[in-house]
Design a protein that fits this description.
Elements lengths: L1 E8 L6 E5 L4 E5 L6 H13 L8 H4 L6 E10 L2 E10 L3 E6 L2 E3 L11 E4 L4 H5 L2 H15 L1 H23 L10 H37 L6 E6 L14 H14 L1 H7 L10 E6 L2 E2 H4 L2 H23 L4 E4 L8 H11 L5 E5 L10 E6 L2 E6 L1
Parallel strand pairs: 3-13, 3-14, 8-12, 12-13
Antiparallel strand pairs: 1-2, 1-4, 4-5, 5-6, 6-7, 9-10, 10-11, 14-15
The protein binds adenosine-5'-triphosphate and magnesium ion.
């Protein structure tokens, strides 16, 4: 799929711009702090309806303005879509597909898919489990809008269950209320766990293959989803939803005393981890910086392939400051891989950046100067 054009109004440092894009390569060129990453953030917003930089909607409104508005023209195998999203300080989010309003984010997810790769993606490997869960979730919500719904519900129930645990911490008072919350948590949480296992079953071979190619066969990448801290006693990988529910519920039930002491929910998909191994060794702890970077690249390319296999077309690829971070070998691999099959956006501060075809979009202080190659 492609994004053909984007209209921005009051988004970050953009005032009002309409930009037409090249179907293959778009180089966003400009000095530091001109609006390159902001433009990628705007494009990516139309995929996940939140910021990849974890910013709140309100923070993306141009300073001093009351709202922002984005509209992208999307070309997919089955036709064109006009996707609009905005945020007003007072009226909150506005979402539209082809001009007709949609109430919920889950109703607009999946219209436009994009995968973003930035130097911070090294954190997927380096940081704690939440970075890896976020990596999975950001991709999965674009592919499975009902997964987004489960995540939101789960967060809500988790918050309420945690409030109760905090309130009764250390006392037996109201402890009998907990299983009701546990059951609700288990119902939504088990769907999340099952879906993550399913996705990883598809993602893992894709990531392994990519990683083998980039490292010329020197490294084997492995992904392993660890759920509910079961440490291999129970194999959840191929378990049915009911089985996962049973196991999750008994995990909570067996640890009531512990949770009561700590005053917080200790088990569930919000605590799970995706272990990433290189040649059998935990990449988070032992891989070199370069190895970690390669693994992050493999995961991102695998993400592209996963989207392709799920929906039959490639998502749009957004590369923020990535080129300067990769060595020549990995850069070549990436460019070769992209070829003409994926519409790609590349930010660079390098005014000598050479590209055989595509658009160069010059950005200066939130203004676009569109120049054909
Ligand atoms: N809500 C906002 N309103 C107005 N300006 C903003 C807002 N949020 C961020 N900015 C400004 O946008 C500018 C450009 O940010 P951006 O991250 O896009 O830069 P960049 O071109 O990617 O630079 P770099 O090469 O350093 O990564 C920043 O200087 C920032 O102060
Ligand atoms: Mg930037």
């Amino acid at each position: 799929m492609h994004i053909l054009s984007l209209f921005l109004k009051n988004f970050r440092n953009y005032d009002e711009e309409k930009i037409e894009f090249h179907p293959h390569v778009n180089i966003l060129m400009g000095m530091n702090a001109q609006g390159k990453s902001n433009l990628l953030e705007a494009i990516h917003y139309l995929s996940i309806f939140s910021s990849f930089r974890n910013a709140k909607d309100r923070e993306m409104i141009k300073w001093g303005q009351p709202y922002f508005f984005l509209e992208g023209k999307i070309l997919r195998n089955n036709g064109e879509y006009l996707l609009s999203a905005g945020y007003h300080e007072e009226n909150k989010k506005i979402l539209k597909v082809n001009g007709s309003q949609r109430k919920k984010i889950k109703d607009v997810l999946g219209v436009f898919n994009s995968v973003l790769f930035s130097p911070e993606d090294l954190n997927i490997i380096k940081n704690g489990p939440s970075a890896r869960r976020r990596y999975l979730d950001q991709e999965m919500i674009q592919l499975f809008p009902s997964y987004y719904y489960s995540l939101i519900q789960y967060q809500r129930i988790l918050g309420q269950r945690n409030n109760l645990l905090k309130e009764i911490r250390g006392s037996k008072n109201k402890l009998e209320l907990l299983p009701v919350w546990s059951q609700q948590l288990v119902n939504q949480g088990s769907m999340i766990i099952k879906k993550r296992f399913e996705v990883l079953q598809k993602l893992t071979p894709l990531a392994r293959l990519t990683h083998r190619k980039i490292t010329n066969g020197a490294e084997e990448l492995d992904l392993d989803y660890h759920s509910l801290e079961l440490k291999g006693e129970e194999n959840l990988k191929t378990a049915s939803l009911d089985k996962i529910k049973n196991i999750f519920f008994s995990q909570l039930d067996n640890n009531l005393v512990l949770e009561n002491q700590r005053g917080i929910t200790l088990f569930g998909p919000h605590r799970d981890d995706l272990k990433i191994m290189i040649n059998g060794i935990d990449a988070r702890k032992f891989a070199s910086q370069g190895q970690q970077r390669t693994a992050a690249l493999s995961l991102k390319i695998a993400e592209l392939e996963l989207v392709k296999s799920e929906i039959g077309e490639y998502p749009v690829l957004l590369l923020d400051d990535v080129m300067s971070e990769l060595d020549q070998n990995r850069k070549n691999h990436l460019m070769q891989y992209i070829g003409n099959k994926v519409q790609t956006f590349i930010t660079t501060t390098d005014f000598d950046f050479k590209q055989k075809e595509g658009n160069i979009i010059q950005i200066s202080r939130g203004k676009i100067e569109n120049k054909k190659n």
